[in-house]
Design brief:
alpha/beta, 17% strand
Length: 375
């Protein structure tokens, strides 16, 4: 059945990356089979959550892990876990005044909005964000100076959304945390490395299940045994409103297992796939295009399109025009104010890349014909 037609939906070419607003990732047949099995069978849910978590943890040499409904849920439940420390009173009264140790120290440049603010998820878990450093700088000393008797944890966000320059490293944040007997929570939602952060001894590491691993709508938290038990306990507290279905638990477990076993696309392979699109876009008058690596340092390469002042339209107009077609073409528009648009091709097929090149040419030609429209 064509559900685009049934519900009168617009088709989408996702050249923006693993984005929640577009449904994040495409599922493999293996993941779909796992979901089908989950959907057609019953389980003791606590048993399912505990044993899938332990199984995945063994694959990456972590002490334990637990599958949650999303990376956002992972943040909220991890914050609640380090505040409550297994207390059943806190579990049923997560915002009680009787528990005062709620401060979560976060580098100021990491207090970002990724679709919702980091601060919102922290507060949902009962935490109080304490910003350290400045928007363009945060050192170990900045973090350390904010620690008080009410500090519950340090939170570090590894993401392209955050400020990259003049920031302390994850290792430095971990050293400060453990020096003061505090847990470090790492939001690594879109990261691809399942091993490094766990092996560093980070207390809680949070991933999106649907991004790098191309799993179901889900998240997973790896970490120390006791802390993961505290996170898992939140399913009887605030996590009840964030529960994940049996089909998505099995889907994510399968996706992670496949991710570990498969050979992922290399940097050179990605560049080679990009080459024809970059060449075509670069040939359009008023536009230059080149290959650029992800600014957060991940092994992801994208087509970086620059709209010149001489072009018949600006970058913002081009982005909006690409969205209005059918299929709608979504791009990375974080630097559109600087005239830059990026095309992430990880989930884009060869045919879809041809459609992208054709559509950009059509839009530019249309504006050339009608004359430049300033906004």
């Amino acid at each position: 059945m064509d559900y685009y037609k049934k519900y009168n939906l617009k088709e989408v070419i996702n050249a923006s990356g693993k984005m929640s607003i577009l449904g994040v990732s495409k599922y493999s047949e293996n993941v779909i089979k796992a979901q089908k099995f989950g959907g057609q069978h019953f389980f003791e849910m606590e048993d399912l959550v505990q044993k899938t978590g332990q199984y995945i943890a063994e694959l990456v040499n972590a002490e334990d892990s637990t599958i949650v409904s999303s990376a956002s849920a992972g943040i909220a439940q991890s914050v609640a876990a380090v505040i409550g420390k297994g207390s059943h009173y806190h579990l049923y009264h997560p915002y009680t005044d009787k528990v005062t140790k709620r401060e979560i120290i976060l580098p100021k440049g990491h207090n970002v909005d990724y679709g919702t603010p980091i601060e919102t998820m922290t507060e949902l878990g009962g935490g109080k964000v304490v910003e350290a450093g400045y928007a363009n700088m945060c050192s170990s000393q900045h973090i350390e100076s904010m620690i008080t008797p009410e500090t519950a944890a340090i939170l570090y966000v590894k993401s392209h959304h955050t400020v990259q320059k003049s920031m302390l490293s994850i290792k430095e944040a971990l050293q400060v945390a453990h020096k003061h007997q505090l847990p470090l929570i790492l939001d690594a939602a879109a990261e691809e490395d399942l091993v490094t952060y766990v092996s560093m001894g980070i207390d809680l590491v949070i991933y999106s299940g649907a991004k790098a691993f191309e799993g179901t709508s889900s998240g997973i938290v790896f970490g120390k045994t006791e802390l993961i038990e505290w996170v898992r306990l939140q399913s009887k507290g605030i996590g009840r409103a964030m529960k994940i279905g049996k089909e998505n638990i099995l889907g994510l477990a399968t996706a992670i297992e496949d991710y570990i076993e498969q050979d992922n696309e290399s940097a050179e392979q990605m560049k080679n796939r990009l080459a024809p699109l970059v060449e075509e876009l670069d040939s359009i008058e008023g536009i230059t295009c080149s290959v650029a690596q992800d600014k957060a340092g991940r092994t992801i390469f994208r087509a970086n399109l620059k709209v010149s002042d001489e072009a018949p339209l600006n970058a913002k107009q081009l982005v909006e025009e690409l969205k209005t077609g059918n299929p709608a073409i979504y791009t990375r528009e974080y630097e559109v104010n600087n005239g830059i648009i990026e095309f992430d091709i990880r989930a884009v097929t060869k045919d879809e890349m041809l459609k992208i090149g054709t559509r950009v040419k059509e839009i530019v030609a249309l504006y050339e014909k009608e004359g430049k429209i300033d906004e």
